[in-house]
UniProtKB/TrEMBL annotation:
GO cellular component, one term: endoplasmic reticulum membrane
Record's keyword terms, sorted: Coiled coil, Glycosyltransferase, Membrane, Signal, Transferase, Transmembrane, Transmembrane helix
Protein name: UDP-glycosyltransferase family 305 member A1, isoform A
Source organism of the structure: Drosophila melanogaster
GO MF annotation list: UDP-glycosyltransferase activity
Amino acid sequence: MRALCLLPVFVLLGRFCSLEAANILCLVSTAKHNNPGWSKPLFDALLANGHSLLVISTAPNPEPKKQVDGLVYYHLPNEYDVMKRHFLLEEPREYISMVTLNQLLVWYEVLLGSCRALLNSDTMSSKRPELTAQLSMEYDLIITDVTQGIECLMDSVSGWRSKPVLGLSAGKLTPDLMSLLRAENTINAARIPHYISQVPKTMGFWNRLHNHIMYYAEPLIHLVITRPVLSELMKTENAFPKLQLVLLNTHPTLDYVQNLPPGVIEVGGLHIKNQTSPLPTYIQEFTEKFFDGIVYINMPYIEYMNDQGLKAMYTMIHGNPNVAFIWNVEQLEQLPAKKPNLLTLHVNQSLQQDILAMQYVKGFLNHGDSFSLQEAIHYGVPVVVLPLKLEEFNNAQRVMERNLGVMLQVKEFNQSSLSDALTRILDEERFISALHQAQLKFRTRPQSALELAVWHAEQLIAEPRLFKHFAQTETLAQNFFVANSLDVLTVPLIVLLAAVVSLANLVYVLYTGGSKRQQTLEKAVLKKRKKSKKSSPQTFTPVNVTLKLETSELLEDLNNEILEGEEELLKGEEKPLEEKKED
């Protein structure tokens, strides 16, 4: 009996022990603003487990400094810059605000522009023969970044349809990801805010109307714009690969809770390191001089805030002399002026986590990208968010709703608003309390995000057919009316309309019944009047029948009285004549 009880354990251990090293193809073709380097921890963990990887990535400077066994790496630059293309004006230097519906068009333009920039780059042209040879090899698993709902490099992979495909998404759950999974769309537009909108979680009528327009505009954009343009760059069916699983960079502490299809696995915080590294000595010595804590700044486009950005920073730093400010100036074109309590650095993603992990970090100023906010929650640091593009507005709205920090609007940004926002997160206890709860939930998991991602990747290699039942191809075959039950809802709608029409008719009859009866009587009177006109030569006929009857009766009485009077006169005249005769 004991042996039988341990049989499932032995089978499970045997399955993992028998898993041989696999050949894995990793494709990451997203632009820089989508942070293509966030998938590197997963690739490193798969290498550590003995698998062989061919990585083709657009991550900035990710190439290993020395040769790594089992890794073949190709770096392809993706120079597409969504900020400079759509949101920044160079002369004069300003930020361009954009309504949400236009940002939805930008979202899909990023998909096409990024793909065009990658495929038409000089690096891609020079390495194409070598890449073609590498991509023609046999692979046990294909991992692809589908943050934008497309993979530009899949067109070069021969025979990918016979291999299991694992998708990585650095964004939120979208209908495009559902389509790639061939899963049922569980996103309800009446309850789930659109992933690039600033709609609040509790939506009123106008919010729901706006939300439905955003979601229902996507299929139209695909049909009219995306697919026709994409067909000129590559085969459309290769651009939208069929996925078995998706590893999604979300977590309920920051993102809204929703029903996920079984093929979607949340791995929010996948890029966060298990252990942070000690900071350089000069950073530690700088921070030890200030007893009110540390504030870390990573706002690369602050110069474009209507000539107020740098001035607002200087005002904030000058107004808090006992706070140490560490400013990431990697993407700033104009270096800030020197201040006694300011340290300027070129900070990469790894160093940013090391800074946020410091014990006395009291605030983090950023634009609201998912990776920075996840790091802030992981290390329990309140944030000041100034959203500028696409999904940052959705993230900032969630931060505000959950008291994880303060949100600033571009239209409200000035020299004092930034200082006021920092004062709030430094002084108000509610932010610290909310972040403590969020940090506890974010860190407390049955498995870490990295362990969960590695487990599903290896399980997909061992049992690729296990996940085929997650797809619902019949759902995608349904048209819009059937998929949204509009055909079924027409039946009660018709019944309801019939009931409303019947009720309206009844009310109309009850309301107009008396007037119709009156009209019938008047018609009968008119008929009698016409008949009387034909029978009598009189030219005048009273309109009122009652008056006519009373007049005729008066005439008859008058005639009778006249006749009686004449008879009495005649009698009086006759009596004297008779008396004369007798005399």
